[in-house]
# Entry
Amino acid sequence: MAVWKTRNKLHFENKKPSLMKVLCSIKAWIRFIAPHLPGHASGVSDCSLLKAMGVVPVPKIRRVPHLVLWHPPFVPWLKLNTDGLAKGNPGPAACGGIFRDCFGRFIGGFCVNLGHQTAFFSELMAIIIGVEFAFHFGWHHLWLESDSTSALACLSSSSFLPPWLLRIPWLNCLAQIRAMNFYNSHILREGNSSADRMASLGLTSSYLIWHDTPPVEISPLLHMDVMGYPYFRVS
# Structure
């Protein structure tokens, strides 16, 4: 605005501009408008420049990383980590799950392509398939862990109605859970990386695959979990 006014005076009134007046006008406008603009100062240079203009800098809030750890279950429990995904939501979908014992050893895992579905459908399907495998193998001390709070909430809801395609499988899943010693918990997405990678493998499969040994794609993540290496979540 100050530059525009000075230019007009020079063009229409033939008045030579005063650099000092222009700078003072610019600084006044900056001081006036700064409190009404979003943003923050980052670094010493930004703060020094703003202070020189008479603006009180708002420092950038530092995001502190939080450690996320995967914990093994207690004897005689097995932990089942599940995950589901949908590229586009809805879009190409898949799910997967990993069973591990109290030492963090890989007991088995599964993955499957689900076609065109939502992420919520995939999360539920991962739970259904995982519980069915546990029930089939006689693993009746099951600790289910997922990064989907909405899917976990459905397990304790008396009013939840699953998608039509999952009505019967979901009822069977609940019946199998009632026949087990069952526990479920939430884990942040960063700590569920092994199950997430297993679900991604399901996108390339045309049928349900059971793994007796860990796929090479998830072996490094399993090793990190066993050794207690943390994942980091910035929030």
The first helix runs from residue 2 to 12.
